[in-house]
Amino acid sequence: MLKRIIHFSTLKISKTLCTSSQLSNSLENRTNDLTPSTLEPTEPESKSVLEPLNEDISHVTTYLKPTYNIAAYANRSETIQEFIKLGVDLNHIERKVSNAVPFILRLHFEEVKKHLLFFTNVGINIDDVAHLITKNPFILKESLEDLDVRINYLKFKRFTDESIARIITKNPFWLSYSTQDIDTKLGFFQATFELSGPQVRQIADQAPRLITHNQEKVKLNVFVLKEEMGFSKYDIQNIILKKPKILMSEQKKLLKTFEYLHKVIGLSHQQILECPQILTCRENRLKERHQFLVKMKRDQFNPKEPNFVNVITMVSGTDSEFSTEVAKSSVEEYNLFLKTL
Length: 341
Prior knowledge:
Layout: H1 20-32, H2 36-39, H3 78-86, H4 90-96, H5 100-105, H6 109-122, H7 126-135, H8 144-156, H9 161-170, H10 179-192, H11 197-206, H12 208-211, H13 215-228, H14 233-242, H15 251-265, H16 269-274, H17 283-295, H18 311-315, H19 319-326, H20 331-338
Helix pairs in contact: 15-17
């Protein structure tokens, strides 16, 4: 199926070869520069390590790899100047993206402009283009032909233009994957969770970083949800359709949050399924707010009884909103309570 949309082009690679005669001449010239005195072995003078040195050794330093300070090139590089105007975070690139600075300094802005135009034509806002380059400057290494093929693949898979722009914006590394890689990754989610085509597109649209996430970590979270929490395969399908980012959570934190919700607060599996995003809440935040509700005698999570508290409202919002609207108290009293924990 992919053959209908992928066109292969041949790349001619030119190589400059060094002939044996050139190598010989180079070696001969270097040999001629050597004087007889330099060729004669000299016996090193024996000195005690405790004797003071008479020679200057200030030039002796630890070997350091070449470094690049991107700010030093701001006045000389048109690309750097234009990136600054665009809003690219060069400081982030310099600190966080390995080998990106020398790559950027080799770029010609006339070529970069073609990529910028491509991204805006896809529907990406210019501010988001700056974010894209900040997170993944090596996207500029991809050929326009390959990028076009990858966009056409998504269209072929019935992703809307708005969805494509959103996917690339939320996951700056998406277009660095080949169409074969993305096809395999989408197929993994469809097969693992028995999803329909529209459901796969829904997950990719909601959490595009999940699609390119480490699949072994995804499998481990599925194991945690099924074997350690007790959710069925159908339950897990519903969970990821509502909150797909759960599959990117750290396993131990995910399990601790579930155990507090299920064993301490007493929420049933069904109650958690109705608002699975609660599983992404930090255990400490969950514990602090729940214990304050217990103190205020407001820990009532049964929707069929009076003074029902929705567990989502318990963990969302600011401390001020929680303490006044959910706990029916004040932020001052809540802060005093936190100091007792």
